[in-house]
């Protein structure tokens, strides 16, 4: 009965979010796309198949001003490593969109994306966070952490809005979380991987070199960005949906002061929130895992409902077999833009790539896409093995798929 109640509440929330985003009340577009992988995060009653890890709130965070949008304490989930992985750490930064206006941030603070009051008290660890060797061969016995996302600016904001009691403290949350984890043993790490999905994937790019600087030179440190390669792309109406939204995020949440000076010395702050203008200047080894036709970007940036008022793209968006040749070319142009964005990045021997021709989003968190017999592959190699080969320097990984629709291994997201 409780499970049915939760499902009904979720459906109602989805309906309200969709209604608000269409009616123009002012919610961030990103809030209306509740990632399909969110189902993987919450604990199912009676679940015994996955590892369930409790939430830990950072008790000392408030004194540092490191609080969620609503002023509550930030948190994380930690499962300790063992054996050969006892001194190895995976830090995974949670994703979940952004808020770019007072109104959208006020809404966000009434959800788990803006307040620890609404965070699940326990979550499932799957994919790169799994503790099973058969599901996560390279990292299963490491210390694995999921840092919860409750600021709305990819852990990069600094400021507040007194009138509406909104706290933009993403950078402080990042620092408080790292300080706490270092005190809990991460300072003794002999190897560490900072990863993140979606908005957390952008955060892993923004904070990669900071993460590396936490450790002595002898520690092997690398970063993984999953579905974080958000592009400054033109939508089907010729507008710039994501740039417009990012401008609001950067301005409202005071992100500028925390952006890399290597970028802000040459470009405007909004441009420096786009990974395509950041990745080539990251000094720490990094792996970019991305779908060439990222499902979130297709739905929210390329073909948002406001850019397609007459529904000319609706059938194509939900079923590619209904796309005409010019629509398919539009997707191919987006893929080409992504490949252009990583060209310089990929020239570095220390960096890795896995860009598959799928309509997917966040492939490292899910059991079915991370390491299963039918998981996505490029050539004969799946995602988990590719990331592991790169991290442990077993072989160089610069995997770029052929264009749509050649890949038959995709686990595509069905857009509505």
Automatic annotation (TrEMBL):
Function, as annotated: Hydrolyzes acetyl esters in homogalacturonan regions of pectin. In type I primary cell wall, galacturonic acid residues of pectin can be acetylated at the O-2 and O-3 positions. Decreasing the degree of acetylation of pectin gels in vitro alters their physical properties.
Recorded superkingdom: Eukaryota
Keywords: Cell wall, Cell wall biogenesis/degradation, Hydrolase, Secreted, Signal
Broad class of enzyme this protein falls into: hydrolase
Single GO MF annotation: pectin acetylesterase activity
GO CC field: plant-type cell wall
Family: Belongs to the pectinacetylesterase family.
A Gene Ontology biological process term: cell wall organization
Subcellular location: Secreted, Cell wall
Coiled-coil residue spans: none
EC id: 3.1.1.-
Entry-linked PANTHER family: NOTUM-RELATED, PECTIN ACETYLESTERASE
A Pfam family it matches: PAE
UniProt-recorded name of the protein: Pectin acetylesterase
InterPro entries per record: PAE/NOTUM (IPR004963)
Secretion signal, residue range per the UniProt entry: 1-24
